[in-house]
Amino acid sequence: MAKGKKISMIAFLFIILLTLVIGCSNHDAPSSNTDNASGNSSGNVQFHLGETINPEQVSNFNPFLVNGNWQTLFEYIYEPLFYFNPVKGELMPILAEDLGTWSEDQKAYSVTLREGVVWHDGEEFSAEDVLYTFNAIKEHKVLDQYQIWNDKRLKEINVDGNTITFHLTEKFPSLPFYLSTVEIVGEHSFGDEDPSTNLNKEPTGTGPFTFKSVNESAIILEKNAKHHSNVPKIDELVINRFNNASTLTLSLEDGSVEASTGTIAMPSIPKLLENPAAEMQVYPGLSVFSVIMNNERPGLEDQAVRKAIQLAIDRTALIEKAEMNAVFPANPGFLPKAFNEMVDETIFDSPEYQYNIDQAVQELEDAGYSKNANGVFEKDGEELSFTYNMASNAPAQNKEGTMITQWLQEVGIQTTVKLVTWPELTKLAMSGDFDLLQNSIAFPPDPQAALEVFHSRMTAPEGENTPGLNYMRFRDDEVDGWLDEASVADPETRQELYKKIQKRIADQAPVAVMYNVGGHIPYRVDNFTNYNEEVPVYSALSLSQIEPK
Fold first, then answer.
1. What top-level class would CATH report for the domain 79-190?
2. Which of 296, 422, 448, 523 is spaced 20 to 30 Å from 103 by Cα?
3. What is the b/e burial string over 198-218, where b = at least 16 CB atoms within 10 angstroms of the residue's CB?
């Protein structure tokens, strides 16, 4: 880590004297983003985390819901049975005592819960809370984002004292990774509410931080002094809310905030890192930024058009010019390199899927399209003209969208750009009310889960919300069959099937990948120390350990 600048002894004594005379000027609940990051007027140690959080993202604090909230918040307040550490690519027990055990036939998985866990309100945590959480997902299909309860997976859950046993219909070795995606809620706090509509305005979890308040400028959390294993050394975690990445980045530069969860104006990275107090944690991960194509829309239902869009995107230029090399190359077959031997490495660099404007044009001409007087390809009187949705107030995303729409114009595909908020992008993706949409697709830490993004059971007709992440409305019998076979296969067979699926996805191009994102986490080391770089530095596990210098 970078060392702070030295100051003279005279200056040091002057600062001490000045501090004794005037005290600390910060407020307990900040009304701006310029408070000192290490304390407030009552002497509490505050850590200021900055993030772009729109008003739509504080409409509920319900960890079951995928919209209307800022999902990262739940990591601090609630806890899952297991945590998937993207830095190391491994599971860690959280509410579970260990990583659990499988039955001999691999159709039952038992997890013993950690002792000494209590809810923030003092109620005792029990196996019944875990049972309630998973049954709520079962009873409200809209909450089962990753299809844990489909007819080939989870069948029932039994409780015996402090042990939970998950019974499966068929072998499903990925189950522990799927369990890491579910934050456990308390039956006593959720039991009388519909979990699919509960706004949960006063969230009560078991995590290392408790909810204190929310206002227009910040979400304020307090340390959980009764946490079972990681009592934070800071008194308050203040999550400062910003309207856009540019103002957040300025606050990182001037030290008003100590870190973000990854939001930063990417062109500002070189300037930020010139400061010896600034660090950047970078690791690959489980999110693929893409141009998501609605495969049900006229024109986009044609594989040749989707292939042309795929060929029109210069992924190397996006990474170098817009993301400042702080992200990773994406696989045209979608599966990130984080999954090691399950990935078909040959697809990454195959000329068949690389940026090639001439080949994109050839694909369209071979499929019977021709350019009209406006230079736009058309067929049977229908132009290839699409609405292109992307996030507002996101400088890097806007730059990338501009680059991509210009490349599409070179090919002969016309776009009309529409800027919407991040929550609106999610709504559009789920309902299918879009042509093209630039956003990330994040999935559980398992290759099966990543590729099941493309299973037909993960989608729905346009106008209905998807039960999974198949926002593309992509349906392919071969992909479905290979995925179903892989879900119960031995590792060697799974590897073969996954490579078939990746090739099929790359060829059918239901989505045009841009790059893979895990973490590019900016943080400062001048006021705080003891960040845990073995996990994401903004994670609850890390922020429970940090302490002021």
1. alpha beta
2. 448
3. bebeebbbbbbbbbeebeebb
At CA 63, angle to CA 60 and CA 65, rounded to 5? 70
Give the model's pLDDT for residue 80.
98
pLDDT band at 12 (very low <50, low <70, confident <90, very high): very low
Instruction: Supply the pTM of this predicted model.
Output: 0.76
- Quick count: other Cβ atoms within 10 Å of Cβ 286? 22
* pLDDT, tens digit, 9 for 90 and up, residues 422-480: 889 999 999 999 999 999 998 888 899 999 999 999 999 999 999 899 999 999 999 99
Give the mean model confidence (pLDDT) for residues 125-138: 97
Q: Where are the domains of the chain?
A: 9-59+208-277+525-548, 79-190, 284-519
Per-residue HEC secondary structure of 324-389 comes to CCCCECCCCCCCCHHHHHHCCHHHHHCHHHCCCHHHHHHHHHHCCCEECCCCCEEECCEECEEEEE
Q: 């979890």: which residue's tokens?
A: 205
The correct CATH number of 9-59+208-277+525-548 out of 3.40.50.150, 3.40.190.10, 1.10.3720.10, 3.10.310.10 is: 3.40.190.10
Residue of 155, 170, 67, 158 whose CA lies nearest to 111: 158
